[in-house]
Every structure is written in C-alpha cells, then in structure tokens.
Batch of 4 targets.
Target 1
Amino acid sequence: MGLLDGKLAVVTGGGSGIGRATARRMTEEGARVAVLDLDGDSAQVVADEIDGLAYEVDVRDAEAVKSAVGDAAAKLGGLHAMFNNAGISTIGRIHELKLDDWHRVVDVNLHGVFHGIRAAVPIMLAGGGGSIVSTSSISGTNPAAGESAYSAAKYAVIALTKNAAIEYGPTIRVNAVAPGYIHTAMTNPIVEHFGAHSDHIVGITPAGRIGEPEDVADVVVFLSSDLARFVTGQTLIVDGGLALRGSVVDGVLDTLTGERA
Ligand SMILES: NC(=O)c1ccc[n+]([C@@H]2O[C@H](COP(=O)([O-])OP(=O)(O)OC[C@H]3O[C@@H](n4cnc5c(N)ncnc54)[C@H](O)[C@@H]3O)[C@@H](O)[C@H]2O)c1
C-alpha cells in the first residue's frame, strides 16, 4: 500500500530537479500526477514516464495556472495534493540588480506559489480536503549577500504558508519545504564553476554531502500524506543540517566580484 494511494496531485516545475523527483515519488506511492512546467517538453517527458498529465504553464500567469489545475483535477477526478515548486534564482547586489531580474524572480518564486494556492484551494475545499506544499529555501531563513530577490521571495513563501494554513484549516493543510544545497540544474553552475565552494559546503554540512532531489521529494510525499495529518503551517528544512552553519551562496558574490562590499 502506498502513502498516496488514490490521491491526485499537481506538481509545478515538475519537468526537472526536485519537481521531477517528487512527481516520480508521488506516483510510486500511488498518486496520479499532473506535471506543470514552463518547459512543456520536459513536462511531457516526465508525464509519459509516470503515466501522468503534462501542461506547459508559466506560473507567473494566474489564469494559466488556474486553467491547468482545473483541467487536471477534472481529468484526474479531483485534487488532493498541490506542490508549488517552480523556481528560479539570480545573484547580484541590491543596488546593481536589474529591475527585471528582481521582478522575474519574485514573480516566479512568490507569485507563482500564490497562484498555485489560489488555483488549488477552491477545488480542495469542494472536494473535502487536501494538502498544499510549496518550495521555500534555506535562503529564506539564512540569506546571503547577493540573494536579495530570491531570499525575499522564499521568506515570503514561509509567511504565505502560515497564512494559508490558518485560513484553510482544518480542511486543507499547508506546509513548505526549505531545501539546502541540492544537486539540480539550478545548482549545476555552482558545482561546475565553484568546485572549491561545493567542497566547502560538503565540508560544513553535518550530513556530509550535497542533497539529491529525492531527499526533498520524500519529505514532500510525507507532508502530502496522512502521516503528516497534524502538521500544518510548517516549513521543513531539508538540508542535511547545512543551515546550522550558513547559507549555500555565502561567499559566491565575493568570488564573482573579487571584492567585499
Ligand atoms: N537546488 C537547490 O539547491 C535548491 C535549494 C533551495 C530551493 N530550491 C528550490 O527548489 C525548486 C526547484 O528547483 P530545482 O533545484 O529543482 O531547479 P530546476 O531548475 O531543476 O527545476 C526548476 C523547474 O521549474 C521550471 N520553471 C522555471 N520557471 C518557471 C515558470 N515561470 N513557470 C513554470 N515552471 C517554471 C523549470 O523549467 C524547471 O523545470 C525551486 O523553487 C528552487 O528555488 C532549490
């Protein structure tokens, strides 16, 4: 028997990394999953693999998210789990950051989560319940220089999670995950170009390694399942203990610019 037997789920950013791993793990645990991604091809590849549904959607577009989530719920026969996970990052000092970059990062990482919650709630309320999980980051709890847009958005996801948990309990549980340094397309450039930085991170991580997408996916499955029936409004840090020591991008800005502010 799976942890999500008979459950119907939507995963945003499901075409890669943490979202792809979660779509796979949810399916292994018995769920039917709809994969939403800006990259329609990668969404389709994952959907084909898990016998799910694929939607090419930009989470910045509230109407597109609502329409895709509604269509998926109609085709799958309901909605029990929503994973708002699509995200992007940028790096630069606050006064040098391009306004477009600030708006794009906040739009995807915060407004995208807001749009996902708005789309899922009416369907879950009508269906009698559900679980929403969103992806924050340890950058939302331990910001580093150069991460302003990303950190602000990820911190806001934690606040939005608490807010939604209060508004929609007891029918809907709402939680977040805050991954640490996870090996995905997002962090590949750091691994490739800042090898010494990665070695440093591994060295200060109590778990002694960089995380894999499945490390986060398993926690999302837990939060989406009845095992977490008394857990709501929480942000679960999934970082092998790294946040006990500091931020993932500590020092990256200095390395990039060759100077300290
Ligand atoms: N990798 C890490 O170390 C790490 C750490 C903390 C938090 N996170 C967060 O985890 C989440 C997943 O990131 P990942 O590491 O798996 O990266 P990833 O790049 O592998 O996956 C992100 C996915 O989101 C999709 N996406 C981007 N913009 C989108 C948009 N506007 N609309 C719909 N889909 C969009 C991408 O196409 C991609 O498939 C993000 O929210 C990220 O901020 C990652």
Target 2
Amino acid sequence: METLEAINQRRSIRKYLDKPVEFEKITTIIDSARKAPSAGNLQDWSFIIVTDKNLIKQVASYALEQYWIATAPALIVVCGLPEKHEMYYGLRGKRLYNIQDCAAAIENILLSATDLGLGTCWVGAFEEEKIRTTVCYTF
Ligand SMILES: Cc1cc2nc3c(=O)[nH]c(=O)nc-3n(C[C@H](O)[C@H](O)[C@H](O)COP(=O)(O)O)c2cc1C
C-alpha cells in the first residue's frame, strides 16, 4: 500500500475481530513507531504491548467506560519519557516535545497498522495513573 493510500484509508475502528494479531505484524508496527521523528532524536518513548485478555479488560475499565476497547486483541500503550527531554530541553522538552514525539510515533502506528490491514483507534481518554500501575512495571 502506498503512503497516501494508507493515510486516506485510515479511520478509527471501535469493534474488532476476536483474532490474535500476528507477532510479525506487531513488531513491524513497533518498528515503524520507533522510526518516527523526535526532537533532538531523543526517542523519548516506550511501547508496551498488551495481549492478555484480562489485562486488556482492566485497561478498558480505566478508559472512561470505553468498553469497546476490551474487544481489541492487542493494545499498544505508548508511554512518554518526559524526564529524558527535560534534561536536554527543560520545560519545553518535558511539556511539549515529549507529547509531540509520542504523537508522531502514534500516527506511524496507526498508518502502518492500516497498511497491514489492521483496524485501530487512538485512545487518549484514560486514567493515567491506573494504566501506569496496571501495565507499566518499570515506568
Ligand atoms: C489525541 C487523540 C485522542 C483520542 N482519544 C480517543 C478516545 O479516547 N476514544 C475514542 O473513541 N477515540 C479517540 N480518538 C479518535 C478520534 O475520535 C478520531 O480520530 C476522530 O473522531 C476522527 O475520526 P477518524 O479517526 O475515523 O478519522 C482520539 C484521537 C486523538 C488524536
């Protein structure tokens, strides 16, 4: 699929087939995410793949009652590492560049998933602390 085709085809999908996503597809998607541009090339992100059904359900319950999330066979939790940016660019790095870098990575995720025939939805409404303690063991 050409880039413009993926951009034109992508749309938010909120109901998914009960079918696991191939591991190769997930690694291809993560690879596309880490190749996104980042300010100062700091790559201030971390990607957590969640495929355990119970964990996915738990994450969905922390996303402001968006229970459709629980139908997804895989989640990619994008974690920003703002402190990394703060060391180099102060508050601007922490508050702006880190968010922008993660957003660029997320867009790559959505477009590469579209290219691979997968439906996705960017989810921004969730309880950060609860998600952090549920899926991020080291952050
Ligand atoms: C920062 C951001 C946060 C979003 N959060 C949610 C969300 O929590 N739940 C949801 O269903 N869609 C969410 N979306 C998806 C938007 O609703 C969707 O992209 C928009 O309505 C346009 O539709 P499209 O993606 O099909 O083009 C989010 C999108 C962005 C960019």
Target 3
Amino acid sequence: MTRHVAILGGGCAGLSLAAKASAMPDTRIMVIEHPDYKTAKDHNWGCWAVDGMQAAHQMARKTWYRWAIYSEKKAVVQTAQHYPYMAISSAAWKGHCRITAKRQGVEFRSVRLSHIDQDQTGFRLVADQPLPDCHHIADSRTPDIPQGIMLQHFRGVEILAENPVFDPDCAVLMDFRCDQSRGIHFIYVLPYSPHQALIESTMFTPHPQEDAFYDHAITRYCEDIIKTGKRQVLRREAGIIPMGFLRPRDDRLDAIGGNGGAIRPSSGYAFTFIQRQIDEAMLHYQQKGELRFSSPHQRIDLWMDKVFLTVLRHRPDVAPMLFSHVASALNGDEMALFMSGLATSRIRLKIIMAMPKWPFLRAMFSGLGQRV
Ligand SMILES: Cc1cc2nc3c(=O)[nH]c(=O)nc-3n(C[C@H](O)[C@H](O)[C@H](O)COP(=O)(O)OP(=O)(O)OC[C@H]3O[C@@H](n4cnc5c(N)ncnc54)[C@H](O)[C@@H]3O)c2cc1C
C-alpha cells in the first residue's frame, strides 16, 4: 500500500527530509508551504564537517581548520585535523534539496492550512485548496517561542574591506572585545579572503536589541579592533534563534527541525542536528518500515546544556571566561565533536573540569527548575 506523507514547512528540515524521498519506498510525499511565508533570504549555516555531514561538506562555501575565541584577556586558537568548521549557503542547500526532491517525485503545494483533523486512518488537512488525506505528518512549522526564554539574536554584514585584515584560514567563532553592557555579546567572523568576511554582532539574552545596537558594534569592531579601513557592504543577514526547550507546535504530529527540538539549546546550532534527526529517521524506516522522528540530542548533552544556560542567564558576566575555558581545555577536533553532539565521556569530563565550580553548583542545585 502506498503511504501518503505530508511535510509541513519547506525550510531546512522540511526540504532536507523531502530530498530523502527515495529512501522511503512505497511513500508519496507532499511538502506543504504557506504562500504568506516568503522564502527566507540567503544566509550561512555554520557547523562542523563531522561524520554524517559529507553532503553538506561537499556544498560548503568555505571550510576552516582553525578557529579562534577572543576575550579581553586572551586569545584561544584551536586547530582541527579531521573536522573543519564550514559555511553552507542556505539558498544553495535548500535549492539542492528542492531539486533532488522534485526529481524523486515529491509534490510541492502552497496552501493556507486552517486545521488538521485526525481519525484512526490518518489525517485530513483542511486548507483553502483540497488536499489528499495522509497517513503521516512531519511538522517543521516554526514553533511558538515562549516569552522570556534565552535567545540568540544577531545582525551581520558581509563586507569587502580596504585593508587585508582577515586571516582566511581562521574563523573567529566568538570575539568578546565588544560592548558587554547589555548582556552576553560577541562578534562572529567568517573570513572568505583577506579582504572579504561575514561579520556578525551576536547576543545571548532574552530580548533582541534595536538594529542600531548590532550595527554600531560591527562598526566599532571594524574600526577600532581589526581596522578594516573603508568597507563595502555586499549583503546583510539577521536572525533570532531560540535557545531553550520548546514545545512542538502540535502534539498530535511528528515534529522535526526546530519544531522537533533539533536546535541545540546551549548554542543555537541546529543544521547538523536536523540532518542527524532525518538520517536517524531514515535508518529507522529501513529497519522497521515506519517513519519516526526523535530528538537528535543525547540526554546528557541536554542536561549539561540546561546547567550551562542557567549559568549564562544568572551570570552573563562570566560568559567570556567560560567559553575561553572550554576552548582551552579541548583541541579543535574535540571541540567540533562536542559542538556537534558527538562528545565522548572523556571530552565531557574535560569540559566539566575546565569550568569554575561555584556558578555551576549553584545552577545545578538552585536554578534548574527555572525557565532557561
Ligand atoms: C539567519 C539564521 C542563521 C542561522 N545560522 C545558523 C548556523 O550558522 N548554524 C546552525 O546550525 N543553525 C543556524 N540557524 C538555526 C537553524 O539552523 C535554522 O533556523 C534552520 O533553518 C531551522 O530549520 P527548520 O526547518 O526547523 O526551520 P525553518 O528553516 O525556519 O523552516 C520552517 C518552515 O516552516 C514554514 N512555515 C511556518 N509556518 C508555516 C505554516 N503555517 N504553514 C506552512 N509552512 C509554515 C516557514 O516558512 C519555513 O519555511 C540559523 C537560523 C537563522 C534564522
């Protein structure tokens, strides 16, 4: 019997799943998009090229085997032997997935869904156009973000600088030499050449700032810290990523992507975890013949993230020191594995040993019941 699967939302997770249609024989897949949600502007997905990320690695715009974390007090540079950091164009990845999915017979529909009815045989999608009933729904629509949770919010520009100030072999993951007066704030730099880089002003706080704050931070960084000289802006990007534990949008449906808990709570990284969530679901399909999605994170990582987020929320002043300590304790490949959810117990122990004990003990015993 042919099983009908609807994927709600054609973003990173929806399209990455649709591109795997041929791994789900006897299945007809339809991606349901919403006409009012315009295709998001092109932006970068930064992540590490760990095992399982080969397809993205092949499409990467650039990879870096070195990366740095700067605070006022020190610079930590990590070098990887096996797992470089990489930048993937969201437009290129989504375009590739869309074409691959269409070649495999996936249908795309743009409709306004009003509600979903469920009975023993499956789901009825009620929309402004008729849609076929389906047996299974993978829901990647953006989840609701609870008020007051920690957010990663950023604005950035890709620039051409007058002076050759960028080291194209070393990405800057965090540079805390910027205004810390409103909470955790750092500059992120992806250098594409000595003259060209993406520079983002990024904050971890519950409330986004006005645009001028990020723009001013980037200007100060370019002029006072790295001394770019004149700059030409090539493109801009901005975003808000929830850091925390979200409820799926509809409990009756299988949730995927950010809606399915794929965003790593302590970092906001999601691309790797979305690919892992889908790969694991495909493996399950091959073995059991049914589609099932689960969290791509290990429980111990979620527990460590909760403690870490509690510390960040209550002691934002220690953030530059914490991130520098983690980076100092690990080599590049260990950092890549940890950030990608593939840490061994030895790597986790190194991180725990590197942390100042007092704020973490307080977070473990007093803050865990609170919203992060
Ligand atoms: C600007 C930006 C930069 C990021 N950078 C990184 C990074 O460097 N590294 C990293 O790992 N992660 C990054 N992330 C986080 C994460 O990877 C992305 O948010 C990723 O796109 C999440 O994929 P998703 O499919 O869950 O959600 P989305 O890609 O947002 O897709 C959700 C889809 O649902 C659609 N939708 C919403 N409502 C409806 C509806 N009612 N009906 C139908 N469709 C609907 C939307 O239009 C969208 O297409 C970034 C996020 C942003 C926004």
Target 4
Amino acid sequence: MDLVPADLRATVRANFKGALIWCGAYDLERANQDLQDGKADLIAFGKPFISNPDLIERLKQNVALAQPDFNTLYTPDEKGYTDYPAAV
Ligand SMILES: Cc1cc2nc3c(=O)[nH]c(=O)nc-3n(C[C@H](O)[C@H](O)[C@H](O)COP(=O)(O)O)c2cc1C
C-alpha cells in the first residue's frame, strides 16, 4: 500500500536536495525496494515500532509482526504504546 502518490514522491525526490526519509505503511520488502530504487535515503517505521518493540530483531529473523490496536492509538495514556511484548 502506497499512501503517497508515486508522481508526488518522484517530484519531491527530484527537487529536494537533502536526505529524504519516507514512511507510511512500509514493510521490509517495500522499504528495501524503495531504497534500492533510490526513491529514498531512509525509510522510517512508526506504528510497527509501537506494536513490535523488538522490530529490528523481528525483521532480521523474519518473525511475524504484531499489528497495532487502533483503539489504543492517539490516546492520552501509555496503554497501547509501551505494553506490547517482545517476541524475540
Ligand atoms: C500515535 C501516533 C502519533 C503520531 N504523531 C505524529 C505527529 O505528531 N506528527 C507527525 O508528523 N506524524 C505523526 N504520526 C504519523 C507518523 O509519523 C507516520 O507518518 C505514520 O505513523 C505512518 O507511518 P507508519 O505506517 O510506519 O506508522 C503519528 C503516528 C502515530 C501512530
């Protein structure tokens, strides 16, 4: 799923001279593909890091990712932010 239209991404890439970081619904495969294709210098992960505190290890070891609970996102306390278990 690509949240930002490809033509907009290309326009930003062509005109912005700094390090370009994209984020938004990335998985490892699409992140690596965009980096290989030169579409970005870095890819950021947001929600996957919330629901997978061990995200890096899971990606390295090809462990399935936990999905975030949207009922506890954008809420004022820590529930749903710091209580997801590590799997690795
Ligand atoms: C709980 C939460 C809070 C966020 N707060 C901000 C924010 O304050 N400013 C901002 O630019 N983006 C904010 N974002 C958006 C993220 O920076 C990012 O664009 C979005 O989560 C898409 O990346 P992802 O699919 O990897 O989560 C927030 C996202 C989440 C889930």
